[in-house]
Amino acid sequence: MPDTVTATDALIKVDNLSKYYPLASGLFSRVRHYIHAVEGVSFAADAGEVIGLAGESGCGKTTTGKLLLRLIAPTNGYIYFNGIDVARIPSGGKLKAYRRQVQMIFQDPYESMNPRKTLYDIIAEPLAVHKIGNIVGREQVVADSLARVGLVPPETFMFRYPHELSGGQRQRVAIARAIGIKPRFIVADEPTSMLDVSIRTGVMKLLLELRQEYNLAMLYITHDLAVARYMCERLAIMYLGRMVELGPTEEVLQNPLHPYTKALISAVPVPDPTFKREAIPIKGSISRPVDPPSYCRFYPRCPVATDYCRENKHPPLEDKGDGHYVACYNV
Amino acid sequence: MVDTASQQVDRAAMRRERWRLFTRTLRDNWRLFVGSKIGPIGLGIVIFFVLFSASYPIFMAVTHNPRIYDPVTGFDYDLMPTSNPHPPTWSHPLGTDVYGRDILSQLMYSSGHDLLLGLIAAGAGVLLATLVGSIAAFYGGIVDMFFMRVADIMMLFPFLATLVALSALMNVSLLMLAIFLAILTGFGTTSIILRSQALQVKVKPFVEAARVSGGSNFHIIWSHIVPNVLPLSFLYMMFSVTGAIFTEAALAFLGFLNVRMSLGIIIQNANTSGYLIGTRLATYWYMWLPAGAVISLICAGFYFVGRGLDEVVNPRLRER
Amino acid sequence: MALLEVSDLTMHYRTRSGWVQAVERVNLSLDRGAAIGLVGESGCGKTSLAMSLLKLLPSNAQIKEGQILFDGNDLVPLTEDQMRRYRWERISMVFQAAMNSLNPVYTVRDQIVEAIQYHMPMRYEEAWSRVAKLFEFVGLDPGVMNQYPHEYSGGMKQRAVIAMALACDPDIIIADEPTTALDVIVQDRILKRMDEIRSELNMAMIYISHDIAVIAEVSDRIGVMYAGKMMEMADVVTIFQKPLHPYTFALMSAFPSVRGEKHELVELPGEPPDLISPPKGCRFHPRCPQATAVCSEKAPEFTEVEPGHFCACWNPRSK
Ligand SMILES: Nc1ncnc2c1ncn2[C@@H]1O[C@H](COP(=O)(O)OP(=O)(O)OP(=O)(O)O)[C@@H](O)[C@H]1O
Ligand SMILES: Nc1ncnc2c1ncn2[C@@H]1O[C@H](COP(=O)(O)OP(=O)(O)OP(=O)(O)O)[C@@H](O)[C@H]1O
Ligand code: SF4
Ligand SMILES: [Mg+2]
Ligand SMILES: [Mg+2]
Asked: How large is the ipTM?
């Protein structure tokens, strides 16, 4: 792993992270098959930086996000938070201490809140779990958080139930819950993909403002490259569990180097009828990374593949200049 | 964007708002319950029997002479020293049984005990089932396997045979029966049903959100899984009450219960003294019909309440 | 005379809390071989409008007024039996999330054969070979046709559903969010194929989507809906370059693009209204930056401002 991908003083630094899921096998079969949901992923994020994670469905975005929060245990690799490896800390006090500093925002604003709790309970939960402040103090924090995300006056929202809010309002509540304990790192898993255009912009802007205000590092997971363009400083593209490209967002989008990224970006429809985009077709379709071969994951579909790609291991993520990393032998 | 400088929250206004929204939720649910039509009927029946049995001590103390009206030892020497059972009269509106005891006061006494039996058995059983189901679903793996095997055993349990054996060994009281039934529902069928509900709750993102927030297993079970299983539990509790009361009646009728007086015993007395045979069934209707009707009505009442709650708990039927 | 001419179509749903005014006085016309795109946010009545065109409505729905002239015949007064001759054979539909409603216990082939036989008396083998042709036509290997839906990927299922809609050679296909759940690469292929099919068969299309980028690529004309009403309709280029309605403009300004200049995204305050009691006057006025007094009083008419450019607004942006 080239150490340059991961700045040493970064807030969160991921090194060679992998997660394999055992595939449910037949009752009498002795062979164990594994889905290599995430493999060999490395990157780092500074405080205040938003890193985008994009790719098609099933490429391992959510798995990466959950690994970072230790919602699932990694099969391999390291996660350094503030220099401390949190990949293998046992559940208990230390893990709880880590979780005081991280938060997650979920995709589905309807399912990510307990329908039997009031907004007050929902937003105060992290505070209560970590025993921060007394009840009066928590009420104040909840009121402030609600006001901060634009649900005013907070008193009229505090004791409502989630089903009494619209999708956009709920996602704001989810954000209020996430910022209440003043975390330093947030994983946002497609937080706007279920919101309508006119409401989405407000939520995106709010996230960016909060990032500034709290100097938050954020992993912004999305399948929408256009949204990623507005949200992230740097953008990583994943394909079947592997990170294939990472670089400054504008650079990756306007000047993609990896053949997969090129195909992906060329397929995004453009909201401009005069723009004639030139589609770069790739053959075949995406599969699941079950016991994948060791050579490049993209090889079977790659338009520029050579024999070399097949005979060697998956290409490493290499700097092609200005922090634009690509994992491909033929760039 | 909103001014972020934190303003002092108006706690009094907040309290009022909380109360307003809380009562509104209650009102909404009540409206759904009433909308089911069958629910309020059930509730009416249940309330009637609660009042009916609650007025028993008053009835005994104020109006009448316990020596005459005691459900077990009472006897009315003045009116009918010889001809018992006796059909209804003014002083015995539902007649007397074969020993000359007042049937109405037997009913009042028994329905209270049966209600208590039903509520204790169902309440404790469903509470147990909620915990068992939630814990089994949450931990999965070996814990789940253990509880599910226990549930299998409970379902295949030779319940009647055990009670027969038990009643031969000792006096099976109503409370013992209640505990027995509670364990049976708590570890048996109901726990399987509530477990599958808990399994659905367990995979919801809000459980994951609680985990990210640092919540412990106990916290997640207690404040996320149980509250989402509880409404269904409550529903099953209503249906379990019915089961418990029926069981009592059946067991008492078969003579397996050692209880001085209960709804089942009233009918059993009529049976053992030979009044439930042939044409006597019609002549001596007051010996079995009122008790049978009370059993059926109480059970129907709880069942209807359950159906009404179904409307509140399962939003499937709800329109906007 | 256009192939499909809808005028003043109004459809409401009866619910416990009142009538949901899901489609309110909508006008549109569609020529043979043309493609119209309908955009709008969730709940604005796109699906309701499509279902009204086929009169495939739930029991609590009622068409209150309006005409649906198909080939000169009004569909509104037709009975269920008479409608059957139009559905599928003349106008067919790819339903929203149809790919998830394929029956898991039958092979895809059998499901399409059944649909064909329902509308056209045909022997099984005949229908079968027709399915094979349709599969090739939508870009699926006919070899997979007797597999079960769960063996298909999302894109394959969507193609199968499109094949089903094509089964009876309709004149119009309504595609309700045909690619919403799919990844961009798959979406791109399917949209391309649908576009080709349209020109090969000279078929008219109505695309429904919340994604204006998708609509921009496949349609000739675009209709913008908001809260049950058609707000603006014009050809694609005009809608994008000279939008008259403030809502259209807001939608465009809020929509990000991967290409071109990175313009600032503009937030539209507020939320879409409840359709049981929509705002009086123009339904957009509470959120409209250009609203004046008249907007909250009287609903603006959907009028032809320029040739082929319709708009319902008291204060259109600029002529
Ligand atoms: N708990 C699990 N057990 C087994 N396999 C899993 C599990 N979770 C995810 N996977 C598999 O791991 C791979 C990556 O899944 P993941 O959810 O991370 O994808 P994603 O990029 O978030 O996709 P999407 O865009 O659809 O959310 C998929 O092939 C998925 O089937
Ligand atoms: N069967 C129904 N009964 C009552 N109201 C309904 C019914 N179907 C839809 N509605 C309401 O009608 C309105 C329009 O719904 P419709 O499904 O047409 O919207 P849409 O534009 O297709 O949205 P989406 O993008 O989410 O598919 C919504 O407010 C919806 O709640
Ligand atoms: S390494 Fe080879 S196969 Fe992989 S993407 Fe690059 S060119 Fe294609
Ligand atoms: Mg995901
Ligand atoms: Mg729809």
From this structure: 0.90
